[in-house]
Amino acid sequence: MARVSVVVLGAGLHPWGKQGRPFTEYGVAAARAALREAGLAWTDVQYVVGAATVRNGYPGFVAGATFAQAMGWSGARIATCYAACASGAQAVDVARTRILAGLCDVALVVGADAAPKGFFKPVGGERPDDPDWLRFRLLGASNPVYFGLYARRRMAVHGSTPAEFAAVKVKNALAGSLNPNARYRKTVTAEEVLASPMVADPLRLMDICATSDGGAAVVLASESYARRLGHTRPVRLAAVSTITPDFPNTFLDLPAFATDSALAVPPPPRPFREAIAHAAYEEAGLGPQDLSLAEVYDLSTALELDWTEEIGLCAPGEAGALLRSGHTALGGRQPVNPSGGLASFGEAVPAQAIAQLCELTWQLRGQAGARQVEGARTGLAVNQGLFGHGSALIAVR
Amino acid sequence: MWFTVEDGLTYLVGTRCTACRTVCFPPRSGFCPNPHCAGEELVETRLSRRGRVWSYTNSCYPPPPPYEAAEPYVPITVAAVELEAERLVVLGQVEGLTAEQLRVGMELELTSSGERWMWRA
Asked: Does ipTM come in above 0.85?
């Protein structure tokens, strides 16, 4: 595949939290911050892509045009995309593609969320044709139930322990304590994690990511536009993977009642999450050994260990040992979630994949402050959205 | 929904493609989900009543609506069960067992309660 790329001129976040403001405010704050970094005015932006979410109480106005109107109508072209938790990566890909096609030079990608308290709920009313509604109705299968299934499976197959899961939280809370945009800034001990209330056996409250308010934005541009603007050595977007699973998907992904059957067709060589990262590596012409850092979607502590293996930092079953060795901690050779991850941010669905790219950008520029990964050159961010949405980004500098 | 009870035995009802044998649960209509198969005839099929636990968990807090949680709430147990003949994994609530009593690999069989299919020892 051609090694063409677009560059990240600016990144911006509104701090994650539970501020209770309209999501538009978070998105605009993040967009303005990203534009300041890029040295651009809002009116310079030719194309706006909004990352969307669909949830109870969230009608169709969660869209690119919502942010464009809030910034002040400028006539910019617009797009909106939905890919659940992967919405941000898909929004980045849409903007990138238009730039690479030569249809625009500079684009703004924005995602923001004001999340309801507690468990995510499906859309209301009687919706027996909606699998997301039915899994709650028939099974009581909230998102943490699926996280609990994955964690228990990991314990059975790989011998992971609750203490190992707690160690992930301790690592990520330490990194998050150094990140001014994180919602949770306190360090925690393994004892505190193991004493927190059980939510979905074997996962406790502090093993599971919260739902948060937050906003994230990036300014993407063509390399020639960046040069004209005087940006020397900008961060390059080397790959965006937005793949879907291969049939049969033999892993029980949210919000499914059952896996595909492998009766007629054998399972694909790589399970879905592994394939998401693999497609990004292929596109960038890089491999896991090249990574300086990775941001992975730690919806639970146990899931971070799964991702650590699935992105190829170690063999299946070895992520616990890698964690204990310090390899994936700040100061280690390949820190995982140096931002603090979802453990420190909580999840602001349509903003999250964009926030991951912001972290890669700051790390690769050497602007990550107290959580800086020394000599960072290559970063990977991975994520998975409901209903078969893959998401992986590789940034290099 | 998606199950039938006959002579006191509960069966999950899925579909089977007459062209490639791919089984689906929940049942599908229209065409086969196997991208290599052009099959358009999906017939109802009963799934195996027994399988082995792929994984399990519970919900210590009442799930949000539209789940109708009992009051007072007793944590529900959920298991993902692997059906060998169909080569798929199916979720269900578990009757009569807590998470502490389950093990990966344990054999469970299907039962039902009201609108819900359930696994039991």
From this structure: yes
